[in-house]
Please model this.
Amino acid sequence: MSARNTAEPGIAMRLALDLGPLAFYFAAYSLSGHDIFLSTALFMGVTAAAMLFSLVRFGKVSPIQVFSAIMVLLLGGLTIWLHQDWIIKVKPTVYYVTVAAILFWGLATRRPTLQMVLGQAYPGLTAEGWRLLTRNWAGFFLLLAIANELVWRNASTEFWLGYKLWGSMPATMLFAAANIPMLMRHGLAADAPDKVKLPPEE
Model:
């Protein structure tokens, strides 16, 4: 395999791959005269393209990113087929609850589920550090699920899309940064914070 296919994406590239499809969704919704069904179709295409780009450029796509893309394609397809916009709006809730359940299951069974997903993203982190990080992310994802339900059920589609782009995404990055002091107390290498990966957003 060539070096090109084994490179790790930098922070800017990771943000582009994670935020790009959602930003495109928001722009498409605004420019299409608030046509959520057309926007959803375009969102599906851009999501698939981002995953394919990651696979070709970096030689891999994480299981949780594949899971997120499958949900976009499946629930996005149902949204268009059944002409029900609530289906795509509830997708983040399903994603967050599912990931939180997997993480809590890992805690209950003493299986390092988050470590399996993120691999070597947190070099030197102890088993206790992984346990605390898993607990924190599981709880955070549950809070995001509750927030998504409150927003899409009580606000306009445009507000919901804006919340996804300017609310939950920045909150996720801030939450990841807030965990770094704890991680460094549990063995995270001193030069690792600039290299760590976030658990993929939905």
User: Anything to note?
Assistant: The chain has a mean pLDDT of 84. The chain has one domain: 3-185. Helices lie at 3-6, 11-31, 36-58, 63-82, 86-109, 113-118, 127-154, 157-185.
